[in-house]
């Protein structure tokens, strides 16, 4: 495919996402690019995305290798979603999303997750930033943390604010963790704020998720059906969490009948400032940041000891966490 690279529409610590256009057809698409020598994770993302076909998942188009500024660049071409991320929409509208629209977006995300999980793939980083929007609604994007469930032991990845308890303890990360992330994302939509309130310290956050025995508070202003749906997503025991297939039959989604012409309703309550705090973000390649978090989560000590030591070294962790460079995804340097 002959194409022209346009403006940058997103950037991580390694890969950049640009708008692009085909020279011959004029089709606009998104291209995620990184140096070929550093493209292992992006090539894994390409392999996963190319195996998926769902109207609720950003579609794979192609890939190629180009030479730019004397460097070989690996490019992953994907569907272009013009309306940005779910988190962007919350911020731009200056407040939380109303319940009918929450149900509309949630149903589409669950349909995307059901497709993923039925093919033995866990996304591992479900959050508002990874849900892209267009006039047709919501689609799941960014498969850089994703994994094949049957592939054996895998490093833990994702975003701390949206991590399930079993993930925060370093035990396992599978399809149930995606459902927990979905529950946290619904709270993000409903409140414009954090699923975990009054926590700005990464160590405290990880410890509370892992060992407090608590789940994020379910907003009381939501309907009974919405609150019940959230309770099915936010069960601390992953075995007890509902699957995507079960959730699709829940009354909250069965009664979600908005169509694409009705996506106009946003409340005006301002979101909290925690939307801009680093504990909402994940770290883009663990091999690029020899940090305390990585060392502890990948150590051979017990999960309890790992998180306790994070807590005891919270001042150093806070320094690392609030470094000038924005982090995007927590991933291990271990290869698949």
TrEMBL record:
Keyword annotations from UniProtKB, A to Z: Abscisic acid signaling pathway, ATP-binding, Kinase, Nucleotide-binding, Nucleus, Phosphoprotein, Serine/threonine-protein kinase, Transferase
Binding positions for ATP per the UniProt entry: 32
Phosphoprotein in keyword set: yes
Catalytic activity: L-seryl-[protein] + ATP = O-phospho-L-seryl-[protein] + ADP + H(+); L-threonyl-[protein] + ATP = O-phospho-L-threonyl-[protein] + ADP + H(+)
Location in the cell: Nucleus
Electron transport as UniProt keyword: no
InterPro entries the UniProt entry points to: Kinase-like_dom_sf, Plant_MAPKKK, Prot_kinase_dom, Protein_kinase_ATP_BS, Ser/Thr_kinase_AS
Annotated Protein kinase domain residues: 3-253
Class in the EC hierarchy, top level: transferase
PANTHER family in UniProt: CCR4-NOT TRANSCRIPTIONAL COMPLEX SUBUNIT CAF120-RELATED (PTHR48011), PROTEIN KINASE DOMAIN-CONTAINING PROTEIN (PTHR48011:SF13)
Protein's name according to its UniProt entry: mitogen-activated protein kinase kinase kinase
Species assigned in the record: Solanum pinnatisectum (tansyleaf nightshade)
């Amino acid at each position: 495919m002959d194409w022209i690279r346009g403006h940058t529409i997103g950037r991580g610590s390694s890969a950049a996402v640009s708008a692009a256009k085909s020279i011959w057809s004029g089709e606009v698409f998104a291209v995620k690019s990184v140096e070929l020598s550093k493209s292992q994770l992006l090539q894994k993302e390409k392999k996963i995305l190319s195996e998926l076909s769902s109207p609720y998942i950003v579609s794979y188009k192609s890939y190629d290798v180009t030479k730019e500024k004397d460097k070989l660049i690996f490019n992953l071409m994907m569907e272009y979603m013009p309306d940005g991320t779910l988190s962007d929409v919350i911020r731009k509208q200056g407040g939380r999303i109303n319940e009918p629209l929450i149900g509309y977006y949630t149903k589409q995300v669950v349909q995307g997750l059901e497709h993923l999980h039925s093919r033995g793939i866990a996304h591992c980083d479900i959050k508002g930033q990874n849900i892209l929007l267009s006039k047709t609604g919501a689609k799941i994007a960014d498969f850089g943390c994703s994994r094949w469930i049957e592939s054996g032991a895998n490093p833990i990845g994702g975003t701390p604010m949206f991590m399930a308890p079993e993930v925060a303890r370093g035990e396992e990360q599978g399809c149930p963790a995606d459902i927990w992330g979905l529950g946290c994302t619904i709270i993000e939509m409903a409140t414009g704020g954090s699923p975990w309130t009054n926590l700005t310290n990464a160590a405290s956050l990880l410890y509370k998720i892992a060992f407090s025995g608590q789940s994020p508070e379910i907003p009381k202003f939501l309907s009974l059906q919405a609150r019940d749906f959230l309770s099915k997503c936010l069960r601390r025991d992953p075995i007890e969490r509902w699957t995507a297939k079960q959730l699709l039959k829940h009354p909250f989604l069965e009664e979600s009948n908005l169509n694409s012409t009705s996506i106009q309703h946003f409340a005006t309550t301002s979101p909290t400032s925690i939307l801009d705090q680093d504990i909402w973000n994940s770290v883009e390649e663990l091999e690029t940041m020899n940090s305390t978090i990585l060392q502890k989560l990948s150590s051979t000590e017990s999960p309890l000891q790992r998180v306790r030591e994070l807590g005891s070294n919270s001042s150093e962790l806070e320094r690392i966490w609030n470094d000038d460079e924005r982090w995007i995804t927590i991933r291990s340097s271990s290869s698949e």
